[in-house]
Amino acid sequence: MTATTVELRLDPLGPRFGADVLGLDLATASDEEIVAVRAALVERKVLFFRNQALDVDGQVRLGNRLGELTASHPVIGPLSEQHQEIYAIDSADNGFADVWHTDVTFVRRPPMGSILRAVTLPPSGGDTSWADSQLAYESLHPGVQRLVDGLTAVHDGNREFGYYLAQRRNGRGNEWDGEIVTRLDPVEHPVVRVHPETGRKGIFVNPGFTSHVVGVSDAESRAILDLLYAHLTKPEHVVRHRWQPGDVAMWDNRSTSHYANRDYGDTRRVMHRITLRGDVPDGPAAI
Predict the structure, then answer these.
(1) pLDDT tens digits, residue range 70-93?
(2) Is residue 27 part of a domain?
(3) In terms of pTM, does the model score above 0.70?
(4) How far from 151 is each of 106, 122, 148, 162, CA to CA, in Å?
(5) For this structure, is 101 an active site residue?
(6) What is the CATH number of the domain that holds 187?
(7) Is-catalytic flag, 132?
(8) What residues does the TauD/TfdA-like domain cover (predicted)?
């Protein structure tokens, strides 16, 4: 996207991470405002928009203005035949996200970003938190940075979605990167990802999908991952959003992880997510 002179009204949630975008209607935003949103997304990593009137079609239109949309998910079916891009995260259908994760890192090209819209909210609870993986990396001890800079980790979607693919989709998922997903082969990504637009380094492992670090013992792998997870989710690296009707959140999937609280009992929570096509992650050794 090209540069813009539009300045968004931002209410920062932290010195360098997260912001509420004030007074912007995503359904009627100008092209220059969308360019400014895209730039703010890279800089602030997660943005929140209150009092939006988007429906399913409006959410898809917004996504197409920000980038190229993927299918709803590599494995889980779409909202409907007419809305192949929308992934309905519905607590009534075991749609929970109560583990720290970065979206869909178990494929070769994980999404660049995600846009999440509140559809049905519980009376209370169901907040979502995001962690800044770049700030977390930068606050590591330099010796730990040097250790993890050269490491690679395996990401495996079978633990979360293998049964779903085999049993509920009869071994046939959605089209992702031009191919129908029929199995979830583990993939390798650098433990530290270099952001393709800013060059900043960030921790790129997550408890949801990372199985182990390559080339070290099981004990070493567990210790390295546990250290990184504990550091990534320190309170000073995290912002938390309390959802309200009409809320839309978008985040840079290349520089964040997130977690949705499962604290609302048997009341229902429904969110609609779309994802923007990404690229193959590069680590420091590839730059």
Answers:
(1) 999 999 999 999 999 999 999 999
(2) yes
(3) yes
(4) 17, 41, 5, 26
(5) yes
(6) 3.60.130.10
(7) no
(8) 11-275
